[in-house]
């Protein structure tokens, strides 16, 4: 028997939901995980590969501090999953190839160099490399230097989600193909109801991790919007360039099981689920900007035959995740025990473990594992009593 107070319902089985489930289960919670899809990682978290790296800044501003904390937390969590032998069951979780973040132009390159000089980070975390060394690292002649993150990696989001659930399978009950139409706080517990009005689960705690569908349940005060992203899949030979992940207003992975992945588009107000040739063309243009001449052997007429994947990332106006106690349910103050872990945008891998630990800290009433000012910056309350929040711009660098 489990302690009733250590039971939580989690809506959503992507990176946000499964990592939170894992972190709560590690602290002795029993989890009821519910998702409308047929299994975990069916949304944007089902992409074949994504990038794990921080994003430094000259003044070490909030985003830089948060991505650093997130990068370190996810790296630690993935290593723990690997050490627990989960890769043998899920497939490869990540590839610790390092990540090369090339400068956009000469001004950006100077800024990158200055940041490393001023902050003097440990060399095993970040160092600046010139164009020649960057070319050697990735195995392709590039036209700029940039940041080298030796601990950076590509990550399989889908395998990551599966590993999160498998590690504590005895504590996590999963319910798929189950859409929750309504939530309510009754008799001191949270209940989740289906379309017929039948409550399917109840617990003292309810965590909303179901991407942009959270607005339907919590209300329009919550500015989470779906951002369409398309990734292009290309055939790749083992050992071919690039040997590491390379980013530059986009990204490209090394060869992973005979494929490499490049992208991704980021479009608001776009609900097309089908793969589009125009988006493949955009991704290939980004790829040529990253690795000059890389796509010269891809005939334009074959773009329509390229495979790819479309996912919808939940984005917030300030591009930060939304993690913490929910302050409002519709137009009323929310009863206690309602939590949100959402708004990961294009950085779901980076935010996942940090957010999951923060929710676990909150439910347990322990000091946050994240610095207090950083945790406060993620709280859902930041969107209350503000003018209507606009959707993020599609064009801004992520």
TrEMBL record:
Keywords assigned by UniProt, alphabetized: Cytoplasm, FAD, Flavoprotein, Methyltransferase, Multifunctional enzyme, Oxidoreductase, S-adenosyl-L-methionine, Transferase, tRNA processing
GO cellular component: cytoplasm
FAD dependent oxidoreductase domain boundaries: 8-361
Gene Ontology molecular function terms on file: oxidoreductase activity, acting on the CH-NH group of donors; tRNA (5-methylaminomethyl-2-thiouridylate)(34)-methyltransferase activity
GO biological process, one term: methylation
Region of interest called Disordered, as start-end residue ranges on this chain: 377-398
InterPro entries: FAD-dep_OxRdtase (IPR006076), FAD/NAD-bd_sf (IPR036188), tRNA_S-uridine_synth_MnmC_C (IPR017610)
E.C. number(s) listed in UniProt: 2.1.1.61
Major enzyme class: transferase
NCBIfam families: MnmC_Cterm
Protein name (database record): FAD-dependent 5-carboxymethylaminomethyl-2-thiouridine(34) oxidoreductase MnmC
Record organism: Candidatus Proximibacter danicus
